[in-house]
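PROTEIN DESIGN WORKSHEET
SECTION A - STRUCTURE
LENGTH: 106
TOKENS:
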């Protein structure tokens, strides 16, 4: 999800920074759960690995908090009208590929 959201920010004129921040936060929370699962088995065998997994979990939680703070800034922009030239360019690029096969020269 995050890769697709970021790709639309970089490759197109869509402003999906909010979606990219949210999906990055979900990825960080997934890392938290992975680290906790690792800590369960490591805390029995090794105090060092237990400490490492716990600190890594806290680091992932801090990353999640940073993603939430970033999302607050990028998600609360309000609705804006798209630039007319950007819309023109978008629809023109869609029209240029009409009627052609995928591997055909344009």
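SECTION B - SEQUENCE
RESIDUE ASSIGNMENT:
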């Amino acid at each position: 999800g995050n890769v697709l959201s970021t790709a639309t920010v970089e490759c197109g004129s869509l402003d999906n920074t909010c979606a990219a921040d949210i999906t990055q936060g979900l990825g960080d929370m997934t890392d938290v759960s992975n680290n906790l699962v690792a800590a369960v088995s490591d805390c029995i065998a090794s105090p060092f690995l237990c400490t490492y997994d716990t600190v890594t979990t806290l680091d992932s939680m801090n990353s999640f908090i940073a993603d939430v703070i970033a999302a607050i800034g990028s998600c609360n922009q309000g609705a804006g009208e798209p630039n007319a030239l950007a819309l023109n360019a978008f629809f023109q690029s869609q029209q240029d590929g009409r009627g052609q096969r995928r591997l055909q020269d344009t």
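SECTION C - NOTES
The chain has a mean pLDDT of 78.
The two ends are 31 Å apart (CA to CA).
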